[in-house]
Amino acid sequence: MADAIVYDLLKQLASITTQQAKEEIKLIVGVDEEVQELKHKLRIIQVMLDNEEERQLKQHVENHWLAQLKDAYYEMDDVLDSWNTARIKLEIEKEEGKSADSTPLLL
């Protein structure tokens, strides 16, 4: 009879141990799946960060190029303004020279 009680206790203990082992295995398997999912998400985030960094670098280069283009525009505009001013001065000087030649000197 004592053997039957010990046998039943061992059977129940084995059942409990087996159940706990199954639950731990489920946890381990679940953790592995979650870890894989997190790794996948991490790779996606890394790609997005790399793309954003590349976009910002490209934008920085474009902004620098636009600033240089703007400077060149202003320099060209200044050259044209100087040329127009010089041309107008020459025209005024010619007109003044003509009117001085045609105006008689009063003595």
From TrEMBL:
<dbReference type="InterPro" id="IPR041118">
    <property type="entry name" value="Rx_N"/>
</dbReference>
<keyword id="KW-0611">Plant defense</keyword>
<dbReference type="Pfam" id="PF18052">
    <property type="entry name" value="Rx_N"/>
</dbReference>
<protein>
    <recommendedName>
        <fullName>Disease resistance N-terminal domain-containing protein</fullName>
    </recommendedName>
</protein>
<keyword id="KW-0547">Nucleotide-binding</keyword>
<feature type="domain" description="Disease resistance N-terminal">
    <location>
        <begin position="9"/>
        <end position="91"/>
    </location>
</feature>
<keyword id="KW-0677">Repeat</keyword>
<dbReference type="GO" id="GO:0006952">
    <property type="term" value="P:defense response"/>
</dbReference>
<dbReference type="GO" id="GO:0000166">
    <property type="term" value="F:nucleotide binding"/>
</dbReference>
